[in-house]
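2.7 Reproducibility. Because tokenized structures are sensitive to small changes in the input, we list the exact sequence used for Basic blue protein, including any N-terminal residues retained from the expression construct. No trimming or masking was applied before prediction.
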Amino acid sequence: METNPTSWPAPLRRGQLHDQPKKNPSTSSLAIKDYSVDFISQEMVQGRGSAMAVAVTAMLCMMLLHFDMAHAATYSVGGPGGWTFNVSGWPKGKSFKAGDILVFNYSPAAHNVVAVNRAGYSSCSTPRGAKVYTSGKDRIKLVKGQNFFTCSFTGHCQSGMKIAVNAV
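Resulting structure tokens (single pass, no recycling of outputs):
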């Protein structure tokens, strides 16, 4: 039996009853009901499929984020002695990745941590707008590339209280 798409009934919304077509009395109500049910089922399946795709995508994103965080390492800068004088050699021999966390432990009355650029690191100066940390238990996430940190208290950077860390 050939059907004419222009004579198909309009799609139903949930809870809506379908009126019988008046132009084509030879069409059985069973065929109309079957079509309506098929159309609604396909519409519902497509809607559920879209929701399922969104849910799967969200789940994958959360898993990737968790995977990335689960593989991030945490380093205590300076080891047991913490953030103090002559720590500039502390990063040697360590492999850092973007996302790793550096923990700076120090007395806030005696030191601070300043995230600087290469010029600030080399000259032991604090560039305008540099982020200054003062908690004594600072946790700083490494970005990909070079990361530079100094203490801006007078004479501290010049006494080796600075580190340069390359994160891959």
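The chain has two helices and seven strands.
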